Amino acid sequence: MLPLDGFTVLDLTRFLSGPYATMVLAELGADVIKVEQPHTGDDSRRFEPKFGGESYPAAMPNRSKRSISLDLKSAEAREIFLTLVESADLVMENFRPGVTKRLGIDYDTVKAIKPDILYCSISGFGQTGPYQHRPGFDIMAQGVTGFMRMTGDGDRPAKVGIAINDIAAGATAIYSVMAAQMLRERTGQGQYMDISLVEAGLAWTVWEQGAYFGAGEVPEATGTRHRRSTPYQAYKTADGFVTIGAGNDRLWKRLVEDALGVPEWQEDPRYLTLQDRMAHRDELQADIEAITQTKTTHEWIEIIDAAGVPVGPVLRYDETLQDEQVIARGMIAEVEHPIIGPMKTIAPPTKFSNLDFSVRGPAPWIGQHTAEVLREAGVPDDRIAELFERGVLFDAHPELNDPVGSRATAEAARS
């Protein structure tokens, strides 16, 4: 049994923040029905590489879901969507504010049909405020939150290597939905959730807010350095870099005595206390690298680890996916996609003692489950076939699927 068994999600999201959130909900047991526009579907389906016309990157956050394809600009498709709302628990969307109202599928409309519905909106800047109507992707949010001014090691702003605000918003949506569902189970009340990429990322600036509110300190780009502790960064070795985390006095003593072989640094007035070391970080980096560049990364990992100090390599992503720890922890999962074929993906990260938290299936093609979901909702086959014929419904690969509406959908796909 999974915690969200019997929990139905109508997923109107695209790109990453919303799809990431609904992917996690799906793998916790929810029946996530991804609602996509005909022909093009989720915008991320454009991303290369593609196999058989299916995007490999788009298949990552959309696994474990079902897909239906409706032209929501059509009154009939809107009626079908609202019919599905009757048996749904959550609607999640990440359109620009105002779009769901224009389509007639906004929270107030949905709530009138299902009073206890949970409804989660994710947008760049939120549903209120002077920026509410601005479109906002991850890079805009990274700019507004200050992330691009505190990342990197030079004069130009630098983007965090992953879409961190998208993932922050997705993670925020996950815990918000779970909290809302817990409350709903106790009170029977629905909930509207307004989440923005900016605010979700801003909430993660934990050390930075402490320094700013406490002392007016504005965080600058510090490369790999920690803002409040040192040595805690990547240092050059003979063949790459090694990360060392020895920010307290106990670890500092182990590092200089047992690993680096310079016990006299404990008496150096520049390095006596953490505050002293922070004040002389440039000198400390130079002194440490004068030593670490004499051996390879692998050699230093063995030496520093034996001294009981946190240490690690700085890997490329391909090296990460071949790392023995990553493999031993089962972080690479395999799944069979009906078009792409065998696929690899990153598995869910939590190891539960008594819960099967795993990839439940491949990502669907556009509209793969349209007929199936509508039948479950009580729509007759002849009506489904008619709506396929008229382009209100869509299935990108009817030849691999149910015969209902196949001819009309195949013709539409070729046009």
Word description of this protein:
The chain has helices at 17-27, 56-59, 75-85, 99-103, 107-113, 138-144, 164-187, 197-202, 206-215, 249-259, 274-279, 281-292, 297-306, 317-321, 324-328, 370-376, 381-389, 406-414, and strands spanning 8-11, 31-36, 50-51, 54-55, 66-70, 90-93, 118-123, 191-196, 232-236, 241-245, 311-313, 332-337, 341-346, 393-394. It is α/β, with parallel strands linked by helices and 415 residues long. It folds into 2 domains: 8-203 and 331-414, Rossmann fold; 232-314, formyl-coa transferase, domain 3, CATH 3.30.1540. The strands form 4 sheets. It has a 7-stranded mixed sheet with strand order 8-7-6-1-2-5-14, with helices on both faces. Strands 9-10-11 form a 3-stranded antiparallel sheet, with helices on one face. A two-stranded antiparallel ribbon has the order 3-4. Strand 1, helix 1 and strand 2 (31-36) form a beta-alpha-beta unit. The chain is elongated. 37% of the residues are buried. Residues 405-415 have low confidence and may be disordered.
Secondary-structure map with pairings?
Elements: E1 8-11, H1 17-27, E2 31-36, E3 50-51, E4 54-55, H2 56-59, E5 66-70, H3 75-85, E6 90-93, H4 99-103, H5 107-113, E7 118-123, H6 138-144, H7 164-187, E8 191-196, H8 197-202, H9 206-215, E9 232-236, E10 241-245, H10 249-259, H11 274-279, H12 281-292, H13 297-306, E11 311-313, H14 317-321, H15 324-328, E12 332-337, E13 341-346, H16 370-376, H17 381-389, E14 393-394, H18 406-414
Parallel strand pairs: 1-2, 1-6, 2-5, 6-7, 7-8
Antiparallel strand pairs: 3-4, 5-14, 9-10, 10-11, 12-13
Helix pairs in contact: 1-7
Biased composition (Basic and acidic residues): 39-51
Protein name: CoA transferase
Organism: Ornithinimicrobium tianjinense
